[in-house]
Amino acid sequence: MSDVVTLERKGAIAVVTVNNPPVNALGIAVREGLQQSFKAAEADPDVKAIVLVCEGMTFMAGADIKEFGKPPKEPSLPDVVNGIEAGSKPSVAVIHGTALGGGLEVAVSCHYRIAVKSAKVGLPEVKLGLLPGAGGTQRLPRLVGVAKALDMIVSGNPIGAVEAHDLGVIDELVEGDLTAAGIAFAEKLLAEGKGPRRTGERTDKLDGVDNAAAVAAKRAEIEKKMPGLFSPQRCVSAVEAAFALPLAEGLKRERELFAECLVSPQRAALVHAFFSERQASKINDLPKDTPVRDVKSAAVIGGGTMGVGIAICFANAGIPVKILEISSEARDKALERARDTYGMSVKRGSLTQDALEQRMTLISGVTDYADLSDVDVVVEAVFEDMGVKQKVFEALDANCKPGAILASNTSSLDLNAIAQFTKRPQDVVGLHFFSPANVMRLLEVVRGEKTAKDVLATAMAIGKKLKKVSVPVGVCDGFVGNRMVFQYGRESEFLLEEGGTPEQIDGALRKFGLAMGPFAMRDLSGLDIGLAIRTRQRQTLPAEFKLPVVLDKMAEAGLLGQKTGKGFYVYEKGSRTPLPNPELPAIMEAASKEQGIERRELSDEYIIERTIYALINEGAKILEEGIAQRASDIDVIYLNGYGFPAHQGGPMFYADAVGLDRVYARICEFHEQHGAWWKPAALLEKLAKEGRKFADL
Ligand code: 3HC
Ligand code: NAI
Asked: Does the chain have fewer CB atoms within 10 Å around its N or its C terminus?
């Protein structure tokens, strides 16, 4: 029938097979193939039922995201699914892997659905700034009711086949050969005399239920949890049409709302985020077939905050891991901490006690380097002190087997210097986890001067196994994320000295979309880390790099953040809710006075420019120096490690959206007004003058 969709007849059953690797996305060729195959099966008098099945790792994972923003090609997906549903012969979708977005919309336009137990189904369009645009908002509520459909469509989270079966999305759970299972199910339908059963004609789940109340509740939830997002409220409007309008009109309404989302800047940003994450794992000078070393066992040196979190990541991935500590007491404490961390998941209901026990069998504690002679990878997470790291790496060099990967979790020390403590710098790599390591998705994979290609490839593969978003970065102070966030933190402190308040600055950045503003974040992590950096910088930085003084004044007053109950905000006992700190105005005024600054009103727009443009300028310097491979990698780091809003695409995407000429011009003004920190990156200047974007690089 076509290259990607084939039609075969097995007795009275027509089998339509889609084979469009890697995820059977519904690009134009698949849509054409599906439409032609179903039409041909409909026209063939010997065909009594139709089975739809997919080759490869998954059922259709959705519309082809690469086609968004390009001129539409016929047949459209709505036309294809409406045609399938209208068919006069019973059709059966056989689901494995993930039936997502347009994939699920095709499945629910078939008259019956069967699935393997491991399959997942969902409508994740909202995560791309869209809504289901091929009948999903009209047909899913008819299958599961309005309230459940709203949950699924507005969260975008898929559900497992077993739950989908309980809800009535899936008719039967099957095992074994997919095509054979589909044919057997179709033959049973025919034997029982069952014909088409069109989802679009059903109303039983819509009638007699207070659908309006479900809609109002979801709207209120969105207003509270995701006020700045464009597509969620439109998802609700589309579902509302499912019970307020007849099917044909509901489908039309869905299409109008889908079109609005398609042209929204948030859709472009979210699709950028999706592809950037996948692109980040590709390393320019690393051929796809670079060999990867076997990683079946691991060790972590140092069982503190990070070490335990990292050990948990390995155990969660089914990889046995040893934690090496300085004493048997410290070793036992680390194991206890791992158990307590899992214990919290059990309390929250996200892990069973049995799973906890099973994971703990994978984590053991040791104090002797000789016990590490057989492990495949070691991650060092001891104190951030070069002398301590030197001793650790010398011991690893003396005890680990040849070929073992020796990784450091250092966040600020020179990885190349660490590698020199061993006789095998080619095996040394940075694995920079973020805190809490077992929760945060980001992993900066730090490539040292001498890191071997297969070690780098293996480090990226380890990240994937640990379910991290791994981004390769080069060696510099703070790597990519922390180097940039430092600029942002400093500028936000300067804004306090110029007239802003923590409430206003945090508020402006939250409105921009950040989950947390810089001051609430500072209070959470404690002000001492920033202070230590400041103290070091005062001794080393040339005089033209002015520094804010507000942190020092706060430290003098004992305001160190949540741990002291007071920082930029005050916290009532046992509460994490930030309340205005009455001591702060006097401190800020004293800081302004000391810096010779007259306090003034700051607009939200100005606050965004001063903080986000500081990130962008540093990002451009990082690109210039080759520390990050591409602008989109920087975006991935910011989206996954620093709570940057996905609907803004990341700092570099945001810069492109604002226009580099405008960003550059503002940075030049800041350079004039605020001095050396704002020296524009040469790359930014060049791109701005050439009318290009970071995305063009
Ligand atoms: N369109 C185009 N390419 C897609 C795609 C899609 N819908 N989904 C995945 N891909 C590509 C990826 O970019 C990647 O390409 P690469 O190898 O060149 O980097 C490749 O397929 C494999 O993807 P992953 O690395 O993500 O593979 P995983 O096995 O980790 O995950 C998945 C598979 C769960 C299917 C995941 O890819 C996914 O969630 N995909 C997106 C699903 C989605 O959002 N669907 C809705 C689309 S919008 C829609 O359907 C609109 C409709 O309502 C009209
Ligand atoms: P921590 O102080 O909580 O833990 C360090 C642990 O290492 C302690 O348990 C200590 O007993 C152990 N240790 C010290 N010397 C040792 C040695 N010679 N042999 C074996 N164990 C030894 O420190 P944390 O926060 O876990 O940081 C560890 C490393 O991770 C540092 O390099 C830090 O820069 C890095 N990092 C920290 C992040 C954070 O947010 N805390 C984030 C990312 C990286």
From this structure: C
